[in-house]
Specification:
Layout lengths: L1 H9 L1 H39 L3 E5 L15 H7 L5 E11 L17 E5 L15 E4 L10 E4 L1 H7 L6 E4 L2 E9 L9 E5 H11 L1 H8 L11 E6 L5 H12 L3 E4 L1 H44 L1 H9 L4 H38 L11 H27 L3 H5 L3
Parallel strand pairs: 3-8, 5-7
Antiparallel strand pairs: 1-9, 1-10, 2-3, 2-9, 4-7, 5-8, 6-7
């Protein structure tokens, strides 16, 4: 190992340039990989939720919630609840916490702050996500009042809210009774409230809907952005979803757990390919930099290799020495690049934490994998030059003395 470091130091400028190339690649890989981890954490949490229920939304509206372009009449949901295999149907009303300001648009890596109005009197339970861990206070329940809310940790951080504070939402005052623990997913940006005030604010935010409501043509209980359907134990969720779609497909959009999971997996694969593909381009440049350095090093040390062989060094030991030298270069560049990547991600996260919008997720297992990967790509890049060094003939090498 001492010989390896001596050889690197003898050509320190070239070694530095090679390590610098690896640093750039691993820096990009660390930053982009941390972003992908954050994205996947968010997606996994969302997938866990949507695959735990059958999601029903008005025809043409988004199945992922948000501001509705249509409504689900209560009569339709009551009829859905009568279908064989259906356990409970829960109405939901959602809209943004505040209307976007076109003059002060902000980039948001996660979900926009969203009001999530749920029918807390329903016995509906998501099969995968029945409860939320709380940082402060409690989650809303059947006894919660219409002027009480539970807020996600990101919103609480951004608005500096604590249990007992008054939170003004769209001109109405609500008392904060709970703050959820961080999930790295959608609920971090939710304001949970009873469905009645959510319905009222949804109507107020939509002029057409408001005119219908004021004229008596729209009932408050019919103002629902979507509904969650749970199935009975032993029932096949896909068959239940197919039955709902068969009977009500003209009026509503039905998303089965399997279908929702497939959509999310497809989106996740696309994002990961884009993010990690960009980082891999930088790594490839670093890999070829190592190959070039090792080839040049072998060309300059041909006579040295010949002497080593003449005094008994085996081709295997020669190959091992040069392979390990490449590996050490990769490891050094990887450690520096990873450190700089973690530093950059931490600085950005600390800055974004003021709004509860961290965009990187740094996990120890990922950092260990980055270090191991750095060493591996160095070894891989050094194999061909090392084999070339091992195959040099003693006589031909010594002739260059």
């Amino acid at each position: 190992m001492i010989e390896i470091f001596r050889n690197m130091w003898r050509r320190k400028f070239r070694t530095f340039l090679t390590i610098f190339g690896i640093v750039i690649g691993i820096f990009a890989f660390t930053v982009m990989g941390s972003m992908a981890l954050k994205l996947n954490k968010m997606i996994d949490g969302g997938k866990k939720y949507v695959t735990g229920q059958i999601s029903i939304s008005p025809k043409g509206a988004s199945s992922f919630g948000g501001a509705a372009t249509g409504t689900l009449p209560i009569d339709t949901m009551n009829k859905i609840s009568e279908i064989e295999g259906v356990d409970h149907v829960a109405a939901m009303a959602s809209l943004l916490v505040s209307d976007p300001d076109p003059d002060n648009a902000e980039m948001n890596f996660g979900n926009p702050p969203t009001i999530y109005g749920a029918d807390n009197q329903s016995d509906f339970k998501n099969h995968n996500w029945e409860t939320m861990n709380m940082r402060e206070g409690k989650m809303l329940d059947k006894n919660s009042k219409d002027d009480e809310v539970t807020v996600g940790i990101n919103i609480a951080t951004d608005k500096k809210l604590h249990v007992g504070d008054i939170f003004n939402i769209r001109g109405r005052d609500f008392k904060v009774v709970g703050i959820t623990e961080k999930t790295m997913t959608g609920p971090d940006d939710y304001v949970f409230m009873n469905i009645t005030p959510a319905r009222e604010m949804l109507i107020a935010s939509n002029p057409f809907m408001k005119s219908l409501y004021d004229s008596g043509k729209l009932k408050l209980e019919d103002v629902n952005s979507m509904a969650g359907v749970s199935w009975k134990d032993g029932a096949d969720s896909e068959k239940v979803a197919a039955e709902i779609k068969d009977k009500f497909g003209k009026d509503v959009t039905v998303m089965s757990p399997v279908k929702m999971g497939e959509m999310i997996d497809k989106a996740s694969a696309t994002f990961n390919a884009i993010i990690l593909g960009s980082a891999m381009l930088a790594l490839i440049v670093g890999l070829f930099s190592i190959v070039n350095t090792m080839v040049m090093s072998i060309s300059e040390r041909t006579k040295e290799i010949g002497i080593k062989k003449a005094i008994g060094a085996s081709p295997r030991s020669i190959a091992f020495e040069y392979t390990m030298e490449a590996g050490v270069i990769g490891l050094a560049g990887g450690a520096i690049g990873m450190g700089l990547g973690v530093l950059a991600a931490t600085i950005v996260n600390n800055k974004m934490a003021e709004k509860g919008a961290e965009i990187f997720l740094i996990e120890p297992s990922f950092l260990v994998a980055v270090i191991v990967f750095s060493f591996v790509i160095g070894v891989v890049a050094g194999i061909i030059p090392a084999v070339r060094a091992a195959k040099l003939k003693v006589v031909e090498s010594i002739r260059e003395l």
